[in-house]
Specification:
By secondary structure, the chain is α/β, with parallel strands linked by helices. The protein has 17 helices and 16 strands. The chain has helices at residues 22-25, 38-45, 55-58, 66-74, 78-88, 92-98, 120-134, 157-168, 185-188, 197-209, 226-231, 262-269, 297-308, 329-337, 406-409, 441-444, 449-469; strands at residues 149-153, 172-176, 213-215, 236-239, 245-246, 259-261, 289-293, 313-317, 341-343, 346-353, 359-372, 378-382, 388-391, 394-397, 401-402, 436-438. The strands form 4 sheets. A 5-stranded parallel sheet has the order 3-2-1-4-16. Strands 6-14-7-8-9 form a 5-stranded parallel sheet. Strands 10, 11, 12 and 13 form a 4-stranded antiparallel sheet that branches. Helix 6 (92-98) packs antiparallel against helix 7.
């Protein structure tokens, strides 16, 4: 009989995330999820099975060595966990908060077959937050300069990831941002209660300390074109300008006062700090009754922002059912806990104003679900005669956004799709122009932060190879 003791089986349930109470948090912009304690993080890290094949790594767009950083947490080596994360990811505190791990690394976690998957995202956040609290920030040894210069257009997740990777390869990188703050969608699109701006700034500072130069208030396409940047000495250009063009439904009343695109609504609140009124006197209509049209993460951000700005009731008007909503389940649950009124299987047909041109109601029609469409979800079909009205004084259209057209339309010879997205090789980011690369939402359309980061990582490798041949 063997003296060896059988290995203890990992606990089925994972550590729950401490959060602010819903009734408290709906009235403030402080971060909702509070993060793991050291004890919680070590217990959760202990659930990892340390699989030999490591499917979670294959599920990560930026190729983090997930079991390795989790092992360090389990061993109480939190500095080592951060160092392991930083090898592949320049934005771990961002990813730990907004990356949809449930559809990527956690989705393929072996433990998830018979129990709950390891909370990889929460552990990533813990490690990154430990780094911040410790005041220490580890940097790789400075590389030998290559003498090559790369311009990065846009400081969102794709551009920042690429800038960090190229800086570590020894290239001189300059990141151009049209707005006055670096971070792209991370600062103008994602609310403080999900991703604090101080966290983003710290990650930007890290990339700057790697050697990347940050240039805000520089509108490529107006201040300089891509062609001019190349003529002025840049050896390669990466375009990561995102999806900043809002979509509307083209229904009557969309031009009324009180109707916002989600881009404008969230930018006024986040980047322009309307949420800190009166310290920042940014004009934004504070509605008592707000209607948000859409069912994605941007819609949930708009709903929850509307509540925190003082709305008494916030409706989410979505044409399919809750089961088909593309938003992260966690965000839907948070919004419902905070008081969101979900009007599922409902689609607006017109917005109605008062005699002063301000929104007073939104007229909707009830929907039924028919056969699946190209997205694989059942197509919503209007039910004749089912129209009804909702009293609102603000409407936010959160039905998606398209590529920012400025750079593509000012760059001669750059091939785009009929929707205006730049055509680029999925594996390398190469475009129709030599030395010009692109990635993120400007190529794929609106997607996730981590997929944009993955595109930035692939393009960095391709640009490095291109510069070595040049």
């Amino acid at each position: 009989m063997s003296d060896q003791q059988p290995k203890p089986r990992p606990r089925a349930a994972r550590e729950s995330m401490p959060r602010q109470d819903p009734e408290v948090r709906r009235h403030n912009f402080d971060e909702v999820a509070l993060g793991y304690s050291e004890e919680q993080a070590v217990r959760e890290a202990g659930r990892c099975l340390k699989c030999k094949k490591k499917p979670c790594v294959g599920g990560c767009p930026v190729e983090i060595e997930i079991p390795a950083f989790i092992h360090e947490i389990a061993e109480h080596n939190f500095d080592g966990a951060v160092a392991k994360l930083r090898e592949k990811n320049s934005l771990p505190a961002v990813c730990g908060r907004v990356c949809p791990q449930e559809d990527q690394c956690e989705k393929v976690c072996v433990l998830g077959v018979k129990a709950e998957p390891v909370a990889i995202g929460r552990l990533e956040r813990f490690a990154a937050d430990h780094e911040m609290k410790s005041g220490k920030m580890a940097f790789p040894a400075p590389p030998a300069p290559t003498g090559k210069q790369v311009a990065v257009v846009g400081s969102g997740p794709a551009g920042l990831t690429l800038a960090g990777d190229l800086a570590k390869m020894g290239h001189a990188v300059t990141v151009f941002e049209a707005l006055h703050k670096m971070g792209g969608v991370l600062v103008y699109g994602i609310p403080e209660f999900r991703l604090p701006k101080g966290i983003v700034q710290r990650e930007v500072d890290y990339i700057e300390k790697l050697g990347a130069k940050m240039v805000p208030n520089f509108v490529v396409g107006k201040t300089r074109t891509v062609d001019e940047l190349m003529r002025e000495g840049f050896d390669a250009v990466f375009i990561g300008t995102g999806a900043g063009l809002p979509y509307f439904m083209n229904i009557p009343g969309e031009n009324l006062n009180g109707v916002y695109s989600a881009n404008e609504f969230l930018t006024r609140s986040n980047l322009m700090k309307a949420y800190l009124f009166p310290r920042y006197d940014t004009p934004i209509k504070i509605g008592k009754h707000v209607g948000v049209v859409g069912g994605g993460n941007v819609a949930m951000d708009s709903v929850r922002t509307g509540m925190r700005l003082g709305a008494e009731e916030v409706y989410c008007v979505y044409r399919r059912s809750k089961a088909e909503m593309p938003a992260r389940q966690e965000e839907i649950e948070n919004a419902l806990e905070e008081g969101m009124i979900l009007k599922e299987l409902t689609s607006p047909v017109k917005i109605i104003g008062n005699d002063k041109g301000w929104v007073k109601e939104i007229e909707c029609i009830r929907m039924d679900l028919g056969e699946p469409d190209a997205s694989g979800r059942r197509r919503p079909v209007p039910i004749d005669g089912s129209e009804f009205r909702i009293e609102v004084d603000v409407v936010v259209m959160a039905i998606g956004q398209g590529p920012n057209p400025l750079v593509p339309t000012t760059t001669e010879g750059l091939s785009t799709t009929k929707w205006g997205n730049i055509i680029a090789d999925e594996a390398t980011g190469e475009t129709s122009l030599p030395g010009v690369f692109a990635g993120g939402d400007i190529v794929t359309g609106a997607a996730t932060v981590i997929l944009a980061m993955g595109a930035g990582r692939k393009a960095a490798r391709a640009i490095d190879a291109y510069l070595k041949k040049a």
